[in-house]
Amino acid sequence: MVSRIVVAGGGIAGLSTALLLARQGYAVDLVERDGPPPEDLGSIQEWQRPGAPQVRHPHMFLGLFRHLLHTRLPDVHVDLIAHGVDEVDMTAPPGIEAPAGARVLASFGSRRATVEWVLHGALRKQTGVRLHHGLSVREVVADQGRVRGVRVDGAVIESDVVVDATGRRSPLVGAFTKEVEESPCGTVYHSRFYRLSDGVPKPPTFLVPVVFAGGAGFGGGLYAHDDRTFAVVFARLPEDETLGRLRRTDAFEAAANAVAQFGPWLRPGACEPIGDVVPMAGLTNSWRELSPETPAGYLPLGDVLCTTDPILGRGASFALAGAAQLSDLMARHPTDLEAVAAGLRAFVESDIRPWYEDGVHDDVERTRSWRATVDGLPEPPAGLPPAVLAALAGQQDHRLWEQAQLRANLMAAPDSLDTPEVRERLDAVLATGWEPPVLSPGPSYAELTDALAAHGG
Ligand SMILES: Cc1cc2nc3c(=O)[nH]c(=O)nc-3n(C[C@H](O)[C@H](O)[C@H](O)COP(=O)(O)OP(=O)(O)OC[C@H]3O[C@@H](n4cnc5c(N)ncnc54)[C@H](O)[C@@H]3O)c2cc1C
């Protein structure tokens, strides 16, 4: 019989797991090494989150995340909208009416800290949860093959279950790991947040809340976020020290201003920076296998088990999907922790592993292409990836649109566009003489590095 549960880590996976399990009647201790969020959402930008440095980078919350929030934690979803998060309705292309019965699809961009703030608000109102902030879990305590609790700074918190949601650098999972697969994402991020001035229209939201630029030798985007904030991001190869200058504020601003598409929001008077330029390096796709000796009741979730390239914006959805699965499994097998662990393993194998493999493949291809540009080698002309082509052609054929969006939003499998139906529909659209609109490419690699050099970067 499970009565007490410790959730180690209060990021996306930990906060949502604690909320779902407490609502099922479990007594939950949530232990988070960082301090609590500020009372006032207006001060959220100052919240220190050294335990989850990605909080200071932009976050896209894909359709899967939005769907799970709406169905599993509807009060949190409503609260998020009430606190300045705008959803992008992707049920049909912009300006086109969705056919009757079309499946509702939406996503949003938001500061990660805002999403966590809203989850914290729900947890504070929730009975059955004890929140411990500023406390690090050091070790899982197990005896005779079963979890007995966790050792925190100077004490033991007893429990029957330990949900390890301590993220990509989990200090706990190493003791129970059989094998780790790792493959570099091949990117370093440089991001900065801004707030739009009064009266300046928000950035457009087409396929997702982002204005794209780059793609040859680097990536770049302007991401619309909550409460009239937005972020500009550049991603570069780790070994590219020319673009490594982006870590300097003046060089970053020079590069951002060299992107014509960002002009309407970055022009003087249109916005104010609300933070420094922050880098994030050491990014990997990783996949972890647990050892057969893992004690019953130790249940890792989210980034502890699998990390994927942030460019693809998938990790938060996987974290929430894992929490929802765990909640279902605890409801189905309340007295059988072996069955819960096996069910969780089956879920990550079937629903997350294919995306991990998809991401590794994409990163290898993208890194090869970026390296060719940076090294000045001739690049083969890049066609549109099939998923992007299908989304664009979807403006002519709703079924194509739906299929492409379901995949892009993690609600259909990575290979779900590889079907005779999709190929036939695409061929039919192309046979009408339709051509995909030219996506604005932004500055070339040489133009970006020239802009940096012109500013002494
Ligand atoms: C630069 C960047 C950008 C990203 N952008 C996106 C995006 O756009 N969309 C998306 O879906 N995903 C994105 N991701 C991925 C996403 O952030 C993660 O997949 C997600 O945060 C995983 O959630 P988690 O709860 O498993 O881990 P985390 O969010 O990392 O949470 C772990 C928590 O555990 C705490 N902790 C750590 N050690 C201990 C300890 N010993 N004791 C107690 N607490 C501890 C940490 O402080 C933290 O709060 C991005 C990642 C990066 C690096």
Could you explain the architecture of this structure?
By secondary structure, the protein is an alpha+beta fold. The protein has three domains: 4-59 and 111-183 and 283-360, FAD/NAD(P)-binding domain (3-Layer(bba) Sandwich), CATH 3.50.50; 188-282 and 442-454, D-Amino Acid Oxidase, Chain A, domain 2, CATH 3.30.9; 386-431, no CATH class. The chain is 34% helix and 22% strand. The chain has twelve helices and 20 strands. The strands form five sheets. Strands 12, 13, 14, 15, 16 and 17 form a six-stranded antiparallel β-sheet that branches. Strands 6-2-1-10-19 form a five-stranded parallel β-sheet, covered by helices on one side. Strands 3-5-4 form a three-stranded antiparallel β-sheet. Helix 1 (12-23) packs parallel to helix 4 and helix 7 (315-332) packs antiparallel against helix 8. The mean pLDDT is 92. The protein binds flavin-adenine dinucleotide. Flavin-adenine dinucleotide is lined by residues 8-14, 31-34, 51-52, 54, 57, 59-60, 136-137, 165-167, 171, 189, 280, 283, 302-303, 310, 313-317, 319. Flavin-adenine dinucleotide binds next to helix 1, strand 2 and helix 7.
Features:
five-stranded parallel sheet, globular, 12 helices, 3 domains, alpha+beta, binds flavin-adenine dinucleotide, 34% helix, FAD/NAD(P)-binding domain, six-stranded antiparallel sheet, 457 residues, D-Amino Acid Oxidase, Chain A, domain 2
The number of distinct β-strands equals 20
CATH class of the largest domain: Alpha Beta
Ligands: flavin-adenine dinucleotide
Helical proportion, percent range: 25-40%
CATH homologous superfamily of the largest domain - what is it? FAD/NAD(P)-binding domain
Radius of gyration: 22 Å
**Proportion of strand residues:** 15-25%
Measured distance between first and last alpha carbons: 62 Å
Task: Please state the structural category.
Answer: alpha+beta
Number of domains: 3
Named at the architecture level, the CATH assignment of the largest domain is: 3-Layer(bba) Sandwich
Unreliable stretches:
none
Summed over residues and divided by their number, the pLDDT gives a mean of 92
Helix count, per DSSP? 12
CATH topology grouping of the largest domain: FAD/NAD(P)-binding domain
Largest sheet entry: 6 strands, antiparallel
